[in-house]
From TrEMBL:
InterPro entries xref list: RlpA, RlpA-like_DPBB, RlpA-like_sf, RplA, SPOR-like_dom, SPOR-like_sf
Keywords: Cell wall biogenesis/degradation, Lyase, Signal
Function: Lytic transglycosylase with a strong preference for naked glycan strands that lack stem peptides.
Keyword Lyase recorded: yes
EC main group: lyase
Domain SPOR: start-end pairs: 196-279
Database matches in SUPFAM superfamilies: Barwin-like endoglucanases (SSF50685), Sporulation related repeat (SSF110997)
Similarity annotation: Belongs to the RlpA family.
Organism: Hymenobacter frigidus
EC number(s) stated in the UniProt entry for this protein: 4.2.2.-
Record-given protein name: Probable endolytic peptidoglycan transglycosylase RlpA
Any coiled-coil regions, as ranges: none
Length: 279
């Protein structure tokens, strides 16, 4: 997962990937964030967060890199239309281009616990908005379509108050219509990053390389040391540059993956354990 105690003091508005400027809520516009969300594992329970409070897996909280502590967000899974209101209490996430890290109770109604991660739209809402499961925005498709950088990994932008969401609940049919109404290019992005059947398990990322030859070398070494373990090289595009990641596993349980990671570390091969869905 992600570091709880890391503090990042950058401003909080991005209209291009990796670029941020301050974007407070106002009466004429709503701040919207689009990107990938993940969640805290139960092993973080009770640890102190960057805000000073203890992490509580049963409280509707989240981590964000820059939004002020106490900011409330309505987070909606763009694939299933489920929404929840959370409060920013920590800094993060700092890996895998995730924009928000949800507490376990907040992640469950969105389906994030099952999938490990999900593409979401999050709106900054009033400070007195009740925390917990919320109604889906009637204009979810409009909020999603307002994204000025649909092909970027993430974005933060403003939408006029005229298309702010209403609180009226929708029927299942209406929710499906809203999501289906998203522009084709964005729907394709969702399809590429979400799966209907969420995989379960863990793997070890044993390095990310610009030079594929280096990745293949590490792959060959691990195969020679652990001939019974699956080792693959995955190709990804990060910040416009091709990256080759060495992936070890799949493992059913995190402790099993951690044991292999420690074994690799003894051989001088660093790595980190990742949930299979976080790719």
């Amino acid at each position: 997962m992600f570091f709880l105690l890391t503090l990042l003091g950058a401003p909080a508005h991005a209209t291009t990937p990796g670029t941020t400027t301050t974007a407070p809520a106002s009466s004429t516009a709503t701040t919207v964030l689009r990107g990938r969300a993940s969640w805290y594992g139960s092993y973080f329970q009770g640890r102190r967060t960057t805000s000073g409070e203890r992490y509580n897996r049963f409280a509707y909280t989240c981590a964000h890199k820059t939004l002020p502590f106490g900011t409330r967000l309505r987070v909606t899974n763009v694939k299933n239309g489920k929404s929840v209101v959370v409060r920013v209490s920590d800094r993060g996430p700092f890996r895998h281009q995730r924009i928000i890290d949800l507490s376990e109770i907040a992640a469950r109604p969105l389906g994030v616990v099952e999938c490990g991660a999900a593409t979401i739209v999050a709106e900054v809402v009033a400070a007195n908005t009740p925390l917990g499961p919320a109604t889906t925005p009637k204009n979810l498709a409009a909020l999603f379509a307002a994204d000025p950088n649909p092909n970027a990994a993430f974005a933060t932008y403003k939408v006029p108050a005229a298309i702010e969401p209403t609180a009226a609940p929708e029927t299942t049919t209406e929710k499906a219509t809203l999501i289906a109404a998203s522009p084709a290019s964005k729907a394709q992005v969702m399809t590429a990053t979400e799966t209907a059947n969420c995989p379960a398990g863990f793997l070890i990322q044993a390095g990310s390389f610009v030079d594929e030859a280096n990745a293949r070398s590490v792959q060959a070494r691990i195969k020679s040391l652990l001939p019974d373990v699956n080792v693959q090289v995955a190709q990804d595009l990060l910040d416009g540059r091709q990256r080759s990641r060495v992936l070890v596993g799949n493992f059913n349980e995190r402790p099993e993956a951690e044991a292999v990671r420690q074994q690799l570390l003894m051989w001088g091969i660093g790595g980190l354990v990742r949930e299979v869905a976080l790719r």
